[in-house]
Amino acid sequence: MKTFKKWFKPVNKKIKYDVSELKQGDKVEKEHTTDEDVADTIAKHHLAEDPKYYTKLKKIHKEK
């Protein structure tokens, strides 16, 4: 857990994440890690940058 905290800045707790987007994000990020906290944090960071990040990512993958 120390390494996790070292590499990731804290999640902005003021953001209200879209539940559907966050579920998609957690699923996608779990492809890269087995740690649910890490997956959730990565997803939240992406969603803080773009609230529709995972919807857009899904669309891009379908177009390929």
Task: Set down the secondary structure blueprint.
Blueprint: H1 2-7, H2 19-29, H3 36-49, H4 53-63
Architecture overview:
- The protein is mainly α and 64 residues long.
- It has helices at 2-7, 19-29, 36-49, 53-63.
- The chain has one domain.
- It has 4 helices and no strands.
- The longest helix is centred in the middle third of the chain and has 14 residues, at 36-49.
- The radius of gyration is 12 Å and the shape is globular.
Q: How many domains make up the 3D coordinates?
A: 1
The coarse silhouette is globular
The total beta strand count reads 0
Structural class: mainly alpha
Query: In percent terms, what proportion of residues is strand?
Result: under 5%
What proportion of the residues is helical, as a percent range?
A: 55-70%
Give the low-pLDDT segments: none
Number of helices: 4
Major β-sheet profile: none
Please report the distance between the alpha carbons of the first and last residues. Answer: 36 Å
Order of helices and strands: HHHH
Mean pLDDT: 90
- Please state the CA-atom Rg, rounded to the nearest Å: 12 Å
